[in-house]
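Hi everyone, sorry if this is the wrong subforum. Our group has a chain we'd like a structural model of before ordering constructs, and none of us has done structure prediction before. Sequence below.
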Amino acid sequence: MPQLFPHGKRFTYEGQDLFVVPHGIDETRLLRNLQLPCPSPIEEHYDFPSADGHRPFHTQVVTCELMTMAGRCYVLNDMGTGKTKSAIWSFDFLRRSNVAKRMLVIAPLSTLQFTWAREILNTIPDMKVAVLTGSAERRLRLLAQDHDIYIINHDGLQVIAKALDKRTDIEVFCFDEVAAYRNKNDRSKLARFLSKGRKYVWGMTGSPTPNSPVDAYGLARLVTPDTAPTSFNLFRLETMLNVNQFKWVPKKTAAETVAKTLQPAVRFHLEDVVELPPMIDREVRVPMGQRQAATYKMLKDHAAALLKEGTITAANGGVVFSKLLQTSIGWVYGDGGKTFELDNGARIKALLDIIESVIDSTDDRRKVIVFSPFISAMQGVAKVLAREKIDHATIAGETPPSHRAEVFAAFQDTNRYKVLNAHPECMSHGITLTAADTIIWFGPTTKLEHFEQANRRIRRVGQTRKQQVIRMVSSEVERLAYRRLAQRADLQDNVLDLIAELTQTGDDA
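Answer:
Right subforum, don't worry. Here is the predicted structure as tokens:
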């Protein structure tokens, strides 16, 4: 035993020979490898400081234990459970313990200021933080400066790649919404290259498999490459069945396979953290106008003809599907980027009726978020809100990060803006908007990750009112889109439930 712990000391107490070792991270790992129970150092010796007075939930303490002890791990806690604060505390403990000096956070663009920079300020305000946005020159200049935490968006890594590769003093890489690296593309390859050799790599997401079980392969290659599946094709064979040349479906054992692949991991549900008022999900059916219905029928007949001829492919099938959705909503893209507005008056009236029923209630603090999957629809909704003189803000892809942060802060913390009109991709991660209790989907997104994340903006710690998610539906193609989202969610829920069980039992095998 003494040779394993060079910093240990022998002494005698009440006639017994004892050997005492420092309660550090390395010593705790070794003791646990020897099957000797030992609490984590962060649980015993860290005070979890927080400038905003927030004390850690038990789930956050458990999460911090894994992040500080495992080195490379997955934080798959539900949305709204405080993953950001857990990462800040974990890094601060490593910093105080002289285990790591600096951390790089790689996160969605919309979360850099409003979520990460703001949370760090609210937790440990004396930390030096740099948000690497703007021109390449500005990003590199900030990276060259001495900071504790650097924050950058996923695609921003490419801009600073060469300089970052030389920064071996940045020992902690925290990938927020690590599911962004599920695909085999240049972004994922670069992230794997830059994180290679780092002491700590944390992959955080509440949606690890938003599309299919094979999404887990890219995550494993990035976070735990030493134990990742040996090849994508083999992993697909382990988790999927090949129905025909173009179709793969998940195996019954897929969730179990994915849960074992994404280890070591921690998973807690929002309900493990706090008891929130209920959330209801309902569908509001609205009729199409005559031109809408005629255009919809024409497109549907065209798709049926392509299918009968055998000439429909994934590419042109996707185009027809998208056009049917656009028609159902009321704005259709034409050639040359021109947008055609159809007679969607019934849909607009239903939208305004819902909004007015919320913001004109006896509780004047209530607010609404409207999501539209197409820019044309979002712009159309903005014109309607302006016409009706409803205090609102619009967030689109071209909205600068600084302005997004200003809008989110005003919406959440002041009486300004009764309605937030947004594209779901622009605010689908890590943002707390509990000032709203109602979400209206003016039309369906086809991406499960965006749908789940967007809905969770209002269901987070701090929500005091009942919430509702309202889906506006005019056609069967919209119902199909929502049904597809529900079917994809089934697999992901199974994966996460299995990981939740492993978390609760302490079994990481």
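For your construct planning: Residues 56-274 form a domain with the Rossmann fold fold (CATH 3.40.50.10810). The first strand starts at residue 9 and ends at 13.
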